[in-house]
UniProtKB/TrEMBL annotation:
Keywords: Hydrolase. NCBIfam families: HAD-SF-IA-v3. This is HAD-IA family hydrolase. Signal peptide: none annotated. It comes from Candidatus Parabacteroides intestinigallinarum. One of its GO terms (molecular function) is sugar-phosphatase activity. It holds the Pfam family Hydrolase.
Length: 248
């Protein structure tokens, strides 16, 4: 399966080989088991503002900017975009609830994946739509020795947000690598779309409630049920990535 995935990627991008130098990690649902808190906070605030929404919607919208999500709900409910004032109010209420619910639980297996990636000699970067303050302190606390402030893409860097490739293109730039020299680890359909649109080999981990097919339809090159499964398969993936070479 790894072999087919890499061969397919190389053919699609007219490359002869991968040259792994960096892994770009999404944050919520990949490094932290936090998506259930985001979904709950969004759902409660949406209901409070009489917006049509289900819990599952927020797993489908995951990766978008707050403004993008709020406009989607306003269009669906009121057939118009939210005003600046409405956007600010709703996003603040959502962020307050998320902070209250979020317990900072790391995603099981994520620390193992990071250690494997480090042992393989690859850079580790975070690419997230999150605008939480002191994110780097939080990351350094949970995953010491892996991330640096200069090598992060957050809500403060991006204008457009996923599923647009912008965040991941910025991630490549900060890592100083080309698309075929990186991997992305993502859990959300729109995050996968963004990474694929940036031309990067994209590993999906289905840590949420959506069917696997939503991640495959978004274009994921490989799919694992969780971060533990990816950690267990990492060495196989690296061996294949460094071995497979197509004839030009
Ligand atoms: Ca995510």
């Amino acid at each position: 399966m790894i072999q087919e995935a890499i061969t397919h990627y190389l053919q699609k991008h007219s490359q002869t080989c991968l040259y792994p130098k960096a892994v770009l990690f999404d944050m919520d649902g990949v490094l932290y088991d936090s998506m259930r808190f985001h979904a709950r906070a969004w759902y409660e605030v949406a209901t409070r503002h009489h917006l049509i929404a289900s819990i599952e919607d927020f797993y489908l919208f995951e990766g978008r900017t707050g403004e993008g999500t709020i406009n989607e709900l306003f269009q669906r409910t009121f057939h118009r975009n939210a005003t600046e004032e409405e956007t600010r109010t709703i996003y603040e209420e959502k962020s307050d609830l998320f902070r209250a619910y979020n317990d900072g639980t790391p995603m099981p297996g994520a620390a193992d994946v990071l250690e494997k990636v480090k042992a393989s000699g690859l850079q580790r970067l975070v690419v997230t739509g999150s605008g939480q303050h002191s994110l780097i302190d939080k990351l350094n606390h949970t995953y010491p020795g892996h991330f640096s402030r200069e090598k992060m893409v957050t809500a403060f860097d991006v204008k457009i947000g996923k599923p647009h490739p912008e965040p991941y293109l910025m991630g490549l730039q900060k890592a100083g690598v080309k698309a075929h020299e990186a991997f992305v680890v993502e859990n959300a359909p729109m995050g996968v779309e963004a990474a694929v649109a940036a031309g990067i080999f994209t590993i999906a981990v289905n840590t949420g409630p959506l069917p696997d097919q939503t991640l495959l339809d978004a274009g994921a090159d490989l799919l694992y049920p969780d971060m533990n499964a990816l950690a267990n398969d990492w060495d196989n993936l690296m061996k294949a990535a460094r071995r497979i070479q197509l004839t030009p």
